[in-house]
Structures are given as C-alpha cells and as structure tokens.
C-alpha cells in the first residue's frame, strides 16, 4: 500500500516536472522566434532634469509583442531569458536598437538625449561585452557618452573586485554607468566608492509611499544625501505625484522618471513628446 502510494507520488512529480520542462521548451522556442521575427519592441520613458524641467534622457524598456498574447512585460520573460542564456542575444538586440534609435534622434537635429539600457547579470559578465558594445557604437555611430548602462547591486555583490575592473573598462570607453533599483540590494556601501559609476537610481518602492510613509521619506532623503557626498548624480524612479516630486526636489534630487511626466512610450508617441 505504502509502496504503491510512493510510486504514485513519484509519478505525480515526474509528470509535473516534465510539464514544467515542456513549458520552458515552448517558451524558449517562442523567444527564439521573437528574436528572428522582430517580436520585440522597445518603449522609451523620459528622464527629466528637475532643475530645468527638461527631458535629458530616456530609458529603453523591453516588451515582447507575442502574436497570441499581445504585449508581454519584461518581468514575465526576462528571468527565464536570463536562466536559459537567451538574454545575451536579446540584450544585444536591445543595445543595438536603442543605440540606432538614439543616433536617429541626433541625426534629426534633436537635442542630445542620453539613452539608458538595462543590463542583466549574464550580459555584464559575458567575456566579450566590452567588444560587443564597442562594435555596436561603431556600427551605429552613437557617441559613447550618449549610452548609459543600468546595473543592479545584486549583479555586483560577491564580485566586487571583478566589478571594479569590468566597470572601469566600460567607463574608460566613455560609457555612463548607473546603479538601478538602488537601496533594494542589501549591499555594503563601502563598495560604492570604488565603482566608477555616475548615477544612483532610487528604487520606486521608496518613492511610491511618499509622503504617507515617513520611513520611505527618510530612506529617499538618505540616498540623495549619500549620492551627493559621493559626488554621484541621483535619479528617482516611479514618481507619480507632484508631492513626491516636490519632496525629492527639496532634498536635492537631480532628475526623475515616472508616470507624473510620462509612462514608457512606443517610439512614435515618444517622438511626439520630444517635438512638443
Ligand atoms: P527598471 O529598470 O527598474 O524599470 C522601471 C520600471 O518601472 C519599468 O517597468 C517602468 O515601466 C516602471 N515605471 C516607470 N515609471 C513608473 C511609475 O511612475 N509608477 C510605476 N508603478 N511604475 C513605473 P517595466 O518596463 O515593466 O520593466 C520592469 C523591469 O524589467 C525593469 O525595471 C528592468 O529591470 C527589466 N527590464 C526592462 N527592459 C529590460 C532589458 O532590455 N534588459 C533587461 N535585462 N532587463 C530589462
Ligand atoms: Mg532600469
Ligand atoms: Mg529600477
Ligand atoms: Mg527593476
């Protein structure tokens, strides 16, 4: 009796496992097809300089335009793409497309805009990342100063020495480096001063509940003060209300992104905003 039950449990698990494996295989096939058949798009979210109120840059955010499901947000496929290694070719496509787009805006005579691209851990530690980026800059003719790479604390944690070297190389190519989702990574602050970065992006979880949550206000103010002490620029993510913006401005925050100014937009809508 017990033995039979054990076998049933076992069969139950193997069935579940092969179902999961099949789902993954299917997802991998669909992502590969998306890569080959222009199934990905970038949306662009403005970054606003608080002092002047001007758009100074934008973040390129990836979406998967699936024939069956429509637009799929990155959180639903990036973790799998990262796990399977597909993030490397997908990330190349993102870098190339964002650089091409920024070059087009320059050619159209628009004021220079910085374009920020999210990197994943796999990409950061890919041996030939610097060469890949150099090739993309050369091919698109985008000045390296116009490209910002966003990294997270967790990508660096535990590899601080290698990070100093890798980021130093990217920095020496003229690229700008930003730490995304800052404050969520539980990392020690001492590594920060050794990294050749320009910008801290305050995670939106600390901005969301301003001004209701006193702790979040203290944390945001603390990150801004820290950034200023370390001579870094600081950008707040997820700014949705004028009250939030006023508080961040008062604390000395340099720039922001968020629905208050604009959601991430498809390229045509973003260009309308640029020309306004
Ligand atoms: P992130 O880099 O922290 O991007 C900010 C996210 O906050 C975006 O979500 C954006 O749409 C959202 N957001 C912006 N303003 C507001 C606001 O005012 N309120 C709220 N509630 N949300 C706001 P999205 O586009 O869904 O991207 C989610 C995450 O996916 C990104 O977080 C980034 O970590 C990742 N991601 C996006 N594109 C790429 C990519 O090309 N490569 C990699 N590796 N990761 C990417
Ligand atoms: Mg980002
Ligand atoms: Mg973020
Ligand atoms: Mg994030």
TrEMBL record:
Domain of life of the native organism: Bacteria
Lineage: Bacteria, Pseudomonadati, Pseudomonadota, Betaproteobacteria, Rhodocyclales
Keywords attached to this entry: Kinase, Phosphoprotein, Transferase
Domain EAL: 24-276
Protein name: EAL domain-containing protein
Covered residues, full protein: 841 to 1116 of 1116
